[in-house]
Amino acid sequence: MPARIEDVAAHAGVSTKTVSRVLNGNPSVRATLRTRIEASIRALNYVPNPAARGLAGNRSYLVALLYDNPTASSSYIMELIVGMLQACTGTAYNAVLHPFEAGDDLTARVDGFVATHRPDAVVLVPPHANNTRLLQRLDELDIRYVTISSKLNQSRLDIGFDERKAASDIVEHLISLGHRRIAHVAGLKGHGARTWRLGGYRDALRKAGIAFDESLVVEGDFTFASGLAGGKALLSRRRPPTAIFAANDDMACGVIREACERGLAIPADLSVCGFDDTPVSQLISPALTTVRQPCREIACMAVESVLQSIRDPAMHLKARVPYQIQLRASTTGPEKP
User: Fold this and answer.
1) What is the number of structural domains in the chain?
2) 78, 224: one domain
3) Is 145 in the same domain as 178?
4) Distance (Å, rounded) from C-alpha 69 to C-alpha 14?
5) 203-230: per-residue pLDDT in tens?
6) What is the value of pTM for the model shown?
7) How far is CA 261 from the centre of its chain?
């Protein structure tokens, strides 16, 4: 027979109420006691019955990730999913994933999703994290939500990292190597990451006393294809840049592909760096200099905070997770004339 909550309580030598508190993520349980109960849960292979628990507590025990543009950021979304699953482990909650393309009817489509799945909490990534109407609607529906890297100040819970400073740091790395003609392939318009990464690029130039040249910024949408197109536009210029900072790794790979098609050597003829530290950044040759975005840690903290907010509706949290600059073989000093 499957283990019951009473069996877990007996195995751990505690009351069923204490086991229930652990399953619900109640912070009042002592760490040593929580560890003992979690060990009993694993030893007995105890799996909470979400349907029964939902009927008893008027909850679904689901936390939903709502996202957009999965083909352009599949590695990013996968890292978020892993972080969410880690946060759900040892609790009564399960993760449910749903892509929603941005559009005029987004709020209505989310209404349908909420009516069907009844999630207790929602995790929103850009561009949905920057959708004022959507956040207002979730408030009206009394659905707890947490935003990831929102450029708004509307969410009570937001987890992210200082993308603008990270972008500034990686461009400063290029400047420290001797580059002065540095181009940028920008991200998708309306996306918070575009704003911060372009802002960081400009910050670094300003700090170094390098005049901002608007013609060295080309449009992208976080896809490999847009990086390819951006590289083509920049490298076709009469005076091409000696270094290119792309707003994510996929676009940086597109730039490298275009450079190689032109017979340019990376990094001898052109230095390239990206952002996110997705798996492709280490699979490409040469390996890509980039910013490691702590996606798993962010998603894990996001889920933990939004579940805590169910117990404490007045909770507010604006947290920033440390990032790392990953220096690899795609950047070096410019060739001397």
Assistant:
1) 3
2) no
3) no
4) 46
5) 999 999 999 999 999 999 999 999 999 9
6) 0.77
7) 32
